[in-house]
Every structure is written in structure tokens, then in C-alpha cells.
Design a protein that fits this description.
The complex is a heterodimer of chains A (298) and B (361).
Chain A: H1 2-31, E1 34-35, E2 42-43, H2 51-60, H3 65-72, H4 74-106, H5 113-121, H6 128-139, H7 144-151, H8 165-190, H9 193-201, H10 206-234, H11 238-243, H12 251-261, H13 265-297
Chain B: E1 10-11, E2 23-29, H1 35-45, E3 48-54, H2 57-66, E4 73-74, H3 78-86, H4 106-112, E5 122-135, H5 136-143, H6 153-156, H7 158-164, E6 169-171, H8 175-185, H9 195-198, H10 201-208, E7 214-215, H11 220-226, E8 231-235, H12 236-249, E9 255-258, E10 264-272, H13 280-291, H14 293-303, E11 306-307, H15 318-321, H16 330-334, E12 336-337, H17 344-359
Parallel strand pairs in B: 2-3, 2-4, 6-7, 6-8, 10-12
Antiparallel strand pairs in B: 1-3, 5-8, 5-9, 5-10, 5-11
Classes of the chains: A mainly alpha (298), B alpha/beta (361).
Chain lengths: 298, 361
């Protein structure tokens, strides 16, 4: 019995060990190494044949200079800050759009809901890359949007949207919207209508009941949705590089330059480790929130 | 010699397979071969060809340095090849298997030997220059009939650039191409390794940056051909492809390419076999196939780049071999400079400078 229980708990631990901890340690090791023209392009590599001395030698060559290097150039912290800003604003816009949609779906008659949910999920059947490329066609100067606006006479000169931060926001909000809608919908769907009736019976207005009951109970879904959008948006690379301009500064692009243009895997790894540390903070907050929720429901 | 900023690997498959298990995997630049050649190779040898494409040396190099790419033939540019050779990424060619080696052009072999001594690891596929493509009519309308369309003054002088900005100027998104040009413009050694000299390019390029519509390494072909832009700093064959597309479309756009008189970068795309190629034997067969005079001519006639195969020249179309934008005159050849790979520390300065020029940060 005890063994079975241990096995059961062991599975997720082994999972985390293989898919998170070991890769993390490999990246950390590269971050502490030095650049070299070789395959792979960094030193030192561990030579198990050299025994204990080889081990000592290996560890003596690791150092933190790549991390101190990141502090010497304003580019890195500016890119981190700019990514945080873009991710935060996108998350907020996604929430503003996603909540009403989730609320709307949750309040439609039962027979409609599956089809509406289907419509939310349907875009996933097309490759993410193609969907982002499609936005190039929509947003470019000669794109559908500008053509339609000029045709209707709303504007006379095409709007410059593509290759600006606005296009990046549009891309992120569009791509991650389902991640916001689904968790919020999941909480709203479970919402007991009698609680709202009770609030109104006790003299609360409809809007008052919405604010103090619906919104309050939807909070876990809102928080989950925000994290699901914020975390991938922070490290986003594809959307800014396809839709953004050369002035769109995001850490994903900086990481790419380190890796591909400078071929400096150690510094690229250091950038990635710091990104991970920045991401871990909201993840830990999220976990704690989840735990609190669970304790409350007990 | 094309670099798109980011996403890059578009798989292009050609499978007219003859139920054989042997396979050669080729990783070449996009838009860089006549696809009939691929079918011809499969028909002649019975080997299945898997043909993938990339559009940036950086992406190729990262695959090479990570190891186990699975490719049998790759096509890095000279300066990138040199660094990858020193990293141990390639195997020496077995000259006995390359029976068509006599077709190669000594003039080009001498030049590529600076990257690959004795040409032991690679053969030249195509070579070209980096220069200025212009929409002749639009540029002369703006700058007058004596517009310096064959001079770096056109694109490095902020006064000209300010005026040209209204009709659109694209630059390659390739610091290793643009920075040497800026240095050539101010009379410095373009292929310098000296960080202090390299930094002199920054104010030049920063001054013109506000007038550059976009830094991109492949979109300019269509943009030039459609008349969306009037000037592009790009690769010779690409500009010529734009010229042809415009001529085919009969849209009245006339494109001209010039290697700048101040000197232009001459580059070489080299075919090499990775050290861990799964089918080195088949790779040699492919190399030998490409070194065939007629096959190489077919490729050049299609992509408008010069090749390193002297024997192929008799099979080249007249508008390829006589075009001085493709096969420059002796005098222009003297005026061309080559690039050498930057040291890692210098490379970092160059990349950083490029980010700063483009993004202002």
C-alpha cells in the first residue's frame, strides 16, 4: 500500500525531474561555461574518463561572468522591461475582451454552448504560424483592413499598423484569447445562479450582484487565464518577429540574436535563466493562489 | 547569402522516388536552384533527394555547431564556412570521387582558398556581390539624371536618403554586409577586424536609419519588382531576379543593379559535407553532379548568380554571361573585397551595433 502510494507520488516527480530539472541544469551549466569555436560551441565539457580530477577541473572552469556581462549593457534590462510591459498590456486587453465572451457563453442556453465553445477552439485547428502570417495580410499597408477602410471612406491614407507594437499587441491578444476565455468560462459555468438571486433578494442591484458575486467567484478563472496569457506572451518570439518592427524590443528577439548572430550559447543561456527566474515569480504566486483556493473549498 | 530575420526553415520536398533506400539530404538557400536539376539527379542516380532550404547563415551555422544535423550537403557562405571548418563541422572531400573537378574555375578557387585552404572541404556553388538595386525611373525623378546609382553615396549620404525615403529604401538585415559597405563609403578598410574602425560605421548607419523603410533580406525582391520601393541594398542575383519579375509583369518598372564604385563585397556560397553526414558517399555523387558543366549552367541560368565552374560558361545564356552585374569585368573584379569571419568578441560588438542602429536601443 505504502509502495503504491509512493509510486503514485513518484510519477509526477520523475516527470518534473526529466522534463524540468535536468533541462534546467543543462541550460545552467551552459550559462556558466565559456564560448568556444567547436561542436558544441562552448567549454568545458565533462570528461567522465578523467575521474575525480576531471570533475574538479570541470567545476573550476564554471563561472558567473555571463551573468555579470548582462548587467553591463542596458539592452538586456530594457528588453526584459519592454517584454514585461508588452505581456502585461496584452494580458489586460485579452482579459477585457475574453471576460465578456466567456460571460456571454456561460449565460447562453445549454444547447448553444458546445457550438460557441467550438468556435473558440476552432482556430487551433490551423497552425499557429499560419494564423500569425494571416495577420500580415490583414494589417499591411495594402492589406484587407486598410483596403476596407479606404473603400468605405473612413480613411484616405493607409494606417501603418504592421511592423509596429500595435501589430504585436493584436497578434498576442488574438493568439492567446482562447486561453483567457476557457478558464473564465469554466468558473462562470459552475456559478450557482441561486447566489445571484439571493443577492438580489437581499437588496443588491443586478450590477451590484455582478460585481460582488459573479466577479468575485470568477476570480480563480480570471487569475488562471491571466497567467496562461502572460507567461507565454513574456517570452514570445514568433509574433514580435513577424508582426513587430525593428523597434519592437522583446527578450525573445534578444535571445535569438545571442544564439544565432553571436553564436554565444553561454550568454543566450544566461538570458534564458534570468527569463525563467522572472517567470517563476508569477508561477509561484499562481500556485499559492491555487492552494489557497483548494483550502477554502475544503 | 540571404538572411531573413527569424523563422526560416521551409521544407521543400522533391520526391519522384525510385523505390530505393538510399537518400541524400541537401540543405541549401531558398530560391537557389532550378528544381529540374533535383529531378534529374534522382533520375540519373536512383538516389532519393531530400531538399530543404534555409535563408540565413546564422540558422545553418547553429545547426552545424549543434551537431547531428542529418544533412549530407550544406551551403554556407565563405566566412561562415571558415569558422565552421575550424569548429570541425566538415569532412575533407574525397577528390577521387569528384571526377568533374577539372571544370572548376581557378580564379574562383584561388579566392575561396582564403576561407578553405586548398579547397579541401568545399566547392564553390555560386558567388556574387552585394550592391545597389534601383528603380531607375523613380530615382532619377527624385535625384535628377545624374543620380549616383552606382555609388554608395546614394544610400549612405543622409541627404540623398532623406529624399529617397518617400519612394522607399530597403537594406539587407545582415550586419556583416552593411557595416563593411559603410566603412568602404568613408574610405576605411571594409573587412577590418579592428573594433575601433568598425565603430566608425555606426554614426553613418544611424544617420540614414530613419530613412530606411525596412531591414529585410528577401522581401526586397518583390518590393523592387512591384515598384513598392525604389532602392534596395541587396545581393546581385536577387536584384536581377527582381528585374526579371518586373520585365515579365510588364509593369513599366525598370530595375538596375550596380556594384558600388567604392568597392563591393564579393561572397562565395560553398557546398560542403558535414563531418557526421549519414551518406557521405551519396553527397560526393551530388557534388559531382553539380560540378557537371551543363548542370551548373542550368542552375546559374535560373538563379542569375555566377558560378565557380569555368566549363559551364559555354552553356550559359547570353544574358547571364555577358551581364556585368553577374560576371563583372576584370576592372570591377579588382574593386571587390571579401569578408573574413569576426572573432567572437568582435562579432558581439557588430551584432550589438546592428541592434542599436536598427532599434535605437
Amino acid at each position: 500500500m505504502k509502495l503504491a502510494r509512493r509510486l503514485l507520488i513518484g510519477v509526477p516527480f520523475v516527470w518534473l525531474l526529466i522534463l524540468f530539472l535536468i533541462p534546467f541544469l543543462i541550460v545552467l551549466k551552459i550559462a556558466l561555461s565559456d564560448y568556444a569555436i567547436s561542436i558544441p560551441p562552448y567549454t568545458p565539457t565533462l570528461d567522465p574518463a578523467a575521474g575525480w580530477d576531471g570533475f574538479k577541473e570541470f567545476f573550476s572552469q564554471l563561472d558567473f561572468e555571463n551573468f555579470t556581462f548582462l548587467t553591463t549593457d542596458a539592452l538586456y534590462w530594457k528588453a526584459y522591461l519592454s517584454s514585461l510591459k508588452i505581456a502585461a498590456i496584452s494580458t489586460f486587453i485579452t482579459l477585457l475582451i475574453g471576460f465578456p465572451i466567456a460571460y456571454g457563453i456561460a449565460n447562453t442556453p445549454d444547447e448553444w454552448r458546445p457550438s460557441l465553445l467550438m468556435l473558440v477552439i476552432l482556430p487551433f485547428w490551423t497552425s499557429f504560424l499560419i494564423r500569425v502570417y494571416a495577420w500580415i495580410g490583414i494589417l499591411s499597408n495594402e492589406g484587407f483592413l486598410n483596403q476596407a477602410l479606404i473603400w468605405t471612406g473612413i480613411i484616405s491614407e493607409p494606417l501603418v499598423i504592421l511592423n509596429t507594437n500595435t501589430a504585436v499587441y493584436i497578434g498576442i491578444v488574438y493568439t492567446y484569447l482562447p486561453f483567457m476565455i476557457l478558464p473564465i468560462y469554466a468558473t462562470l459555468e459552475k456559478l450557482d445562479a441561486s447566489l445571484l438571486e439571493a443577492a438580489q433578494d437581499l437588496g443588491c442591484s443586478r450590477t451590484g450582484a455582478f460585481w460582488s458575486v459573479t466577479l468575485h467567484l470568477a476570480k480563480p478563472g480570471v487569475i488562471a487565464g491571466c497567467f496562461l496569457v502572460f507567461i507565454p506572451a513574456l517570452g514570445e518570439f514568433v509574433i514580435p518577429s513577424l508582426l513587430g518592427g525593428s523597434r519592437t524590443l522583446m527578450i525573445g528577439k534578444v535571445l535569438w540574436e545571442e544564439f544565432f548572430s553571436n553564436r554565444d550559447w553561454p550568454v543566450a543561456s544566461a538570458v534564458a535563466i534570468i527569463l525563467l527566474l522572472i517567470l517563476i515569480t508569477p508561477i509561484v504566486l499562481f500556485q499559492r493562489n491555487e492552494q489557497k483556493q483548494r483550502e477554502q473549498t475544503k | 547569402m540571404k538572411k531573413l530575420t527569424s523563422l526560416s526553415i521551409i521544407a521543400l520536398m522533391t520526391t519522384t522516388s525510385l523505390a530505393s533506400s538510399e537518400e541524400v539530404r541537401v540543405y541549401n538557400w531558398s530560391d537557389y536552384i532550378d528544381e529540374e536539376l533535383l529531378e534529374k539527379f534522382e533520375a540519373e542516380t536512383g538516389i532519393d533527394l531530400v531538399y530543404d532550404v534555409f535563408d540565413s547563415n546564422e540558422v545553418l551555422e547553429t545547426k552545424m555547431l549543434a551537431g547531428s544535423s542529418g544533412y549530407d550537403i550544406v551551403v554556407p557562405t565563405g566566412d561562415f564556412l571558415q569558422r565552421q571548418i575550424s569548429a570541425g563541422a566538415f569532412q575533407k572531400l574525397d577528390q577521387n570521387k569528384l571526377t568533374n573537378a577539372g571544370n572548376l574555375w581557378d580564379l574562383i578557387k584561388d579566392r575561396t582558398a582564403q576561407y578553405d585552404p586548398d579547397n579541401a572541404y568545399s566547392i564553390n556553388y555560386m558567388w556574387g556581390t552585394t550592391g545597389i538595386g534601383v528603380n531607375v525611373q523613380k530615382v532619377t525623378e527624385i535625384l535628377g539624371d545624374d543620380a549616383p546609382i552606382d555609388s554608395l553615396d546614394l544610400i549612405m549620404n543622409p541627404e540623398n536618403m532623406e529624399k529617397l525615403a518617400e519612394c522607399g529604401v530597403y537594406f539587407l538585415d545582415a550586419p556583416t554586409e552593411v557595416i563593411p559597405a559603410a566603412l568602404a563609403y568613408i574610405g576605411e578598410q571594409p573587412n577590418t577586424q579592428d573594433v575601433d574602425v568598425l565603430k566608425k560605421a555606426e554614426p553613418i548607419l544611424t544617420a540614414i536609419a530613419p530613412h530606411v523603410k525596412k531591414y529585410h533580406s528577401s522581401e526586397y525582391i518583390n518590393a523592387l519588382a512591384n515598384g513598392d520601393i525604389c532602392v534596395a541594398f541587396g545581393w546581385s542575383g536577387d536584384v536581377l531576379q527582381a528585374r526579371d519579375r518586373a520585365a515579365e509583369a510588364e509593369n513599366g518598372v525598370e530595375i538596375a543593379y550596380n556594384a558600388p564604385t567604392e568597392g563591393a563585397l564579393m561572397w562565395f556560397d560553398q557546398m560542403a559535407i558535414p563531418a557526421d553526414a549519414p551518406n557521405a558517399e551519396g553527397a560526393h555523387k551530388f557534388l559531382n553532379f553539380i560540378m557537371d558543366a551543363q548542370n551548373m549552367a542550368t542552375a546559374s541560368n535560373y538563379v542569375y548568380y555566377a558560378n565557380g565552374n569555368l566549363a559551364s560558361q559555354e552553356f550559359l545564356l547570353d544574358d547571364v554571361i555577358t551581364d556585368s552585374a553577374i560576371y563583372p569585368s576584370e576592372k570591377t573584379l579588382e574593386n571587390l573585397y571579401t569578408a573574413s569571419p569576426y572573432e567572437p568578441k568582435t562579432q558581439r560588438v557588430v551584432t550589438r551595433m546592428w541592434t542599436k542602429i536598427k532599434s535605437g536601443t
